[in-house]
């Protein structure tokens, strides 16, 4: 009944003493509750957010539906362990293409502990987060029959430079994604996945409008996940490309100030994606 | 011919071995060129920017006009010293009210030296910059006859909390500014200074649109200066409230990425000012 998901591009995976997520066939995604304060903070966020009447519906749909917590046999068989029961964002898709972008130049906050701060600073200086305002945490793309699934190494992707990140965003909407630098991404899905009135760019702009106003939450170390599948696109099905926010272990009280760290990073991602929509050929 | 300006709310002031700026009666403001790389970076910025054809006129007007450099007898009489010759933003005003807001949660950048980084981190954690995405560096307000000029202590203002910063933004457009916490700012100039189709909020929104697009420069540790005077407002003169960007000693190449650090902080300032325009009474 419960199994390890076929598709996971970022976040904690099972193995090496760590628990990974599980899915069932009813469309739920079970995320192991981290045992430290990250677990309690994420649960507190989902609990508060799911009943917060200040969140408009057109924004709420960008968040996974929360179905409470559930004690499950852990992915490593080590016994019962609490999990967050969430909407499974990819289960309904055939061959989903997924990209996880961690938003914000800074992953730490005023109240953060000194050692967490120093670890973040180190990692931030190793990656292009500071320059970009975001970084790609992982992705997978279903290419054509010859190329198959392209799922580049996470650590390579995370340490990508500005230009490499731009290229990865192009490959995500191409039929010929490849690590081979001689193959130029064809961007043949750019207009349908990123563009259009319901495309990813349009959704990101709706999210941006909310972030220009909302002073309720600050989302540190949170990701925008982008999902699409070619089957739905080609068959003109209703389920087009979709964005969802995920990972809320470092959400803190906004205290009447907008989340300028998230907003700035989001604007940077928007700028790059609109560059691709405007000119897919370069 | 050259004199110490009557009005300066932030930046290096003459004294303690440091050179301060000078003004003359032809509307020029002379800023001493700092002897280290900050001086050469600021000069490089003004030189490049003043001839950069990619900058539209409606954005260029937010920057002081650059008139080259000039060797002047330093403010402390220590001999000839190079100065940047700039447009004097306040000289044409009678009793100007001035607010200097340093924009961006982060004042350092990837390439910054380790000791500069550590100094910034320390100061950033002492102030509300990280929370706010900006901080007020200094201000002065001409109140009514009883209150006179209100020019609170810089270090107190810089270390203001989120709520204190909101209050200071209210006092800036009030006829009764005071450090006395029992006196509620009347915000009687909010609608004419911040609001209106040519007010500060409208100007900040124009600037924001440019920052959502431009990937030429990243402006670290740069300030938005806001200036107005009651005489012009009351006489319905053309010269209304005005914003100018100042301090370019830490401007670096944008390398094809938007300046998400500046943009995020600018959006935070915009959000707070629009709160005051929408509801001046709270």
From TrEMBL, chains A, B:
Its EC number is 2.7.1.140, 2.7.1.151. GO terms for biological process: inositol phosphate biosynthetic process. It is an enzyme of class 2 (transferase). InterPro entries: IPK, IPK_sf. It catalyses: 1D-myo-inositol 1,4,5-trisphosphate + 2 ATP = 1D-myo-inositol 1,3,4,5,6-pentakisphosphate + 2 ADP + 2 H(+); 1D-myo-inositol 1,3,4,6-tetrakisphosphate + ATP = 1D-myo-inositol 1,3,4,5,6-pentakisphosphate + ADP + H(+). Keywords: ATP-binding, Kinase, Nucleotide-binding, Transferase. Pfam families: IPK (PF03770). GO terms for cellular component: cytoplasm; nucleus. GO terms for molecular function: ATP binding; inositol-1,3,4,6-tetrakisphosphate 5-kinase activity; inositol-1,4,5-trisphosphate 3-kinase activity. Inositol phosphate kinase with a broad substrate specificity. Belongs to the inositol phosphokinase (IPK) family. This is Inositol polyphosphate multikinase.
């Amino acid at each position: 009944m419960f199994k390890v998901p076929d598709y996971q591009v970022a976040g904690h995976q099972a193995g090496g003493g760590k628990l990974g997520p599980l899915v069932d066939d009813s469309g739920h995604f079970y995320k192991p509750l981290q045992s430290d304060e990250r677990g309690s903070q994420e649960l507190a966020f989902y609990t508060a957010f799911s009943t917060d009447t200040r969140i408009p519906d057109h924004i709420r749909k960008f968040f996974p539906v929360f179905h409470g917590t559930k004690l499950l046999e852990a992915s490593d068989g080590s016994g019962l362990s609490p999990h967050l029961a969430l909407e499974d964002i990819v289960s309904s898709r055939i061959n989903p293409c997924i990209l996880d972008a961690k938003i914000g130049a800074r992953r730490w906050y005023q109240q953060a502990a000194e050692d967490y701060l120093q670890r973040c600073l180190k990692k931030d200086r190793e990656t292009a987060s500071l320059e970009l305002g975001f970084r790609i945490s992982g992705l997978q793309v279903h290419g054509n029959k010859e190329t198959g699934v392209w799922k580049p190494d996470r650590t390579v992707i995370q340490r990508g430079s500005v230009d490499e990140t731009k290229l990865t965003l192009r490959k995500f909407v191409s039929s010929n994604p490849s690590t081979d630098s001689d193959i130029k991404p064809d961007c043949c899905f750019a207009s349908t996945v990123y563009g259009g009135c319901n495309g990813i760019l349009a959704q990101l702009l709706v999210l941006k409008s909310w972030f220009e106003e909302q002073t309720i939450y600050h989302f540190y170390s949170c990701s925008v996940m982008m999902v699409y599948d070619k089957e739905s696109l080609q068959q003109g099905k209703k389920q087009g490309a979709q964005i969802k926010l995920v990972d809320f272990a470092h959400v803190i009280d906004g205290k009447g100030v907008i989340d300028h760290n998230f907003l700035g990073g989001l604007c940077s991602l928007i700028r790059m994606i609109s560059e691709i929509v405007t000119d897919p050929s370069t």
